[in-house]
Amino acid sequence: MGACLHPTPEMGPFSVEARRESFYLNAASAVLLITAKGEEPRCQWRIADTHAAALVAALDQVMAHPSFAEHDHDPEDGHQVRRRDGWLDVDGVGYPYQDPEYAAVELEYRHVRALRAALLNVSDSEPKWLHWIDDPLVDRARHRLQAHRLQATTGQLATDEQGSSYLPTSGTCGCGDKWAGKGWDPVAYGYAQHMLGVQRQAHDELAPA
Ligand SMILES: [Zn+2]
To answer: What's the 176 CA to ligand 1 centre distance in angstroms?
Structure first.
């Protein structure tokens, strides 16, 4: 069993589950696209290059985790990153998982440093927009994530189709949008997607008709 870390705002659509030897990089399957499953443990995946900074932030969270320090003694270069047509294509070492909603790649701690360096290396040009966090057109005061709630405080567990218990969570944006689901992730994804929509709308309103 791993530990799902609370995503930082800079991680945008990504989240991390830390395990002993490795971690899962998680995102919606529309964000993290598994493009090929090579001979294990090779696999290829891609993200939009506008998500490069968010992915780097996710790797920063991994590097701050105690398990990373335990396995950083023998860092290895296992990844190639190419930028083309608005995408960053990653060819590397990892175990992919994908269903209609979510995707994940299980990566080893010893590959993180080199992957992070490779991402920074190819994504040096300016993204079209700033990350919504830094975008002056985004009204962050109006769209604060509020009332994010783990029902742990009430001790109420829900039960899924398999009969396992889980903590239901819910989140509400300051503008009134709401998300609910199982564990932290649906709220984090919901909020990240919502904020990308808010940013898009703010730019569309300024665009010449
Ligand atoms: Zn909002």
So the answer is: 6
